[in-house]
Design goal:
Layout (H helix, E strand, L loop, with lengths): L17 E6 L8 E10 L2 E5 L9 E9 L4 H4 L4 E14 L2 E15 L8
Antiparallel strand pairs: 1-2, 1-4, 2-3, 3-6, 4-5, 5-6
Length: 117
C-alpha cells in the first residue's frame, strides 16, 4: 500500500489551545463557538468540534495561550492571546481545519480581577 505524501510545509504542534471562533462570512449565520485546537502551525490549525462549519466559511479566531514556560513574561502576564482570521478548508466528523490569513495580532493577556477567563 502506498504511503500518503505529507503536504505540510510548516511544523505542526500537537497542542490543545482554547479558542473562540466567530463566523464572519456574509450571509452565514453569525455566532461564536468555543473549541480546542487539536494541532496548530503557523499556517493554520485543526479544531475539535462535533459541528464543523462548512468549507469556505470565513472565521475570526481568538486563542489564549498559557505562558507557564516563558518565565520572564509570566511574572507579569499569565497568558498570551492570538487574534487571527481564516477560512475553513476541510471538515471531518471530529472537527475542521482552518487556514490562517497572514494578518494576525499577538500580545500579552493580563487576566483582570474577577475575570475567570
Amino acid at each position: 500500500m502506498e504511503k500518503k505524501k505529507e503536504r505540510r510545509k510548516m511544523q505542526r504542534f500537537l497542542l490543545e489551545i482554547p479558542a473562540k471562533i466567530e463566523v464572519i462570512s456574509a450571509g452565514k449565520q453569525k455566532g461564536t463557538i468555543e473549541v480546542l485546537t487539536n494541532d496548530i502551525c503557523a499556517g493554520g490549525a485543526f479544531f475539535k468540534t462535533q459541528k464543523p462549519l462548512p468549507e469556505g466559511t470565513q472565521v475570526k479566531i481568538d486563542m489564549v495561550l498559557p505562558l507557564e514556560h516563558l518565565k520572564k513574561l509570566s511574572e507579569e502576564y499569565n497568558r498570551a492571546y492570538i487574534k487571527v482570521s481564516g477560512t475553513v478548508l476541510r471538515t471531518e466528523p471530529s472537527g475542521m481545519a482552518v487556514s490562517f490569513d497572514e494578518d494576525y495580532e499577538l500580545g500579552p493577556y493580563k487576566e483582570e480581577a474577577g475575570n475567570g477567563s
